[in-house]
Amino acid sequence: MVSLDLDFVRAQFPVFSHPESASWAHLENAGGSYVPNQVITLLQDFFITSKVQPYWDFGPSAKAGEAMDRSLELLPSTFNADKDEVHFGPSTSQNTYVLAQALRPSWDIGDEIIVTNQDHEANIGAWRRLEMTGINVIEWGVDPETGLLDISEIRNLINDRTRLLAVTHASNLAATINPISELAALIHDVGGILIADGVSYAPHAAIDVKDLDCDIYLYSTYKTYGPHVGLMFTSDVVLERVSNQGHFFNAQNPTSRLTPAGPDHSAVAACAGMIDYYDDVFKHHFGHAVETPLRDRITMVFELFGQHEQKLMTPLVDYIASREDFRLIGSQSSEHSVRAPTIAFHSYSRSSHDIYSALVKAGVSCGHGNFYAHRLVEAIGLDPEDGVVRLSLVHYNTSEEVAKALSVLEGLAK
User: Fold this and answer.
1) Model's pTM, two decimal places?
2) Cβ contact 327:173 at 8 Å
3) pLDDT tens-digit profile of 303-323?
């Protein structure tokens, strides 16, 4: 059985050899991951050799276009989607806003959309604002004790006027994986569409939109070891319904219809470095099996990542769940098939700020507050400003970094 070679992985990230940054145990990856050499090299090369308007015939411009096209060809494999189904945008928040504007003309006054109070605001704010245009917005609420959604409740909310359900694949605080394919079946039964926010889950798994059967899937590449770009999968069903939000002369181009303002050219080009990184990890662990399709290579690499992440989060989840003075948000399982390695908790006796400060003082990168899941933090009965403490892991983290965080938490119990 192949296991992740952590030394090889960490050698791909210059941050771990930098004297200042390497001193930190970076456990705030849900706010943004580190970037490997493969991405940095492409970004640097673009700025040096081709930072011009792309797609003209002169040398630097042609090179810029080729670099961008490479990302446009490669990145759909991270969704298991086709090229014409994936859109690059400046951010997930902006992609969602554009979607809301594009879909609204296809709905009538009094039609309904369902949102949760578990999501990051980026996946619900734009839909909630449609209430001002005559759309009825229905909230699917979490259990105030756990922060989890109960799928039995959504069955009572969906009806013949339901046009859309927006739900997170795994919350950036509760972190527990929601049953997207099951939810998709329910919403499709009434002719609606499902939008899944995968920003917090995509760093941890190979996303398969065919298996999920979702109509829209969103994630941000700055959480998946790349530059700051928002990626969006849209099914044919969605593309048939949206109004054009791009330039009028691009209306027939599927990947321009939902892109009124494209992201930075250099960032698009650098996204290919994410795939190069996954490929280098694959080659190191499995050899140069050129006959292995790209999608399968990505899947195999993320299986390695997941196995390592489960080992990392198990002692942290188990310890926090064992403390009577702590409340863990989301599932208490540390199975990678159940939750992402994002651990949010609070203390009944100390402020989250105090716990956060102790961790930072000890050299552990983390955060506290609501992390843009303002409604979720309020729903579980906390002050959204102090909120929860969040420790979020990815595959390049080490057991020693987790042990450092555990040592601080144990010290606070004394």
Assistant:
1) 0.96
2) no
3) 999 999 999 999 999 999 999
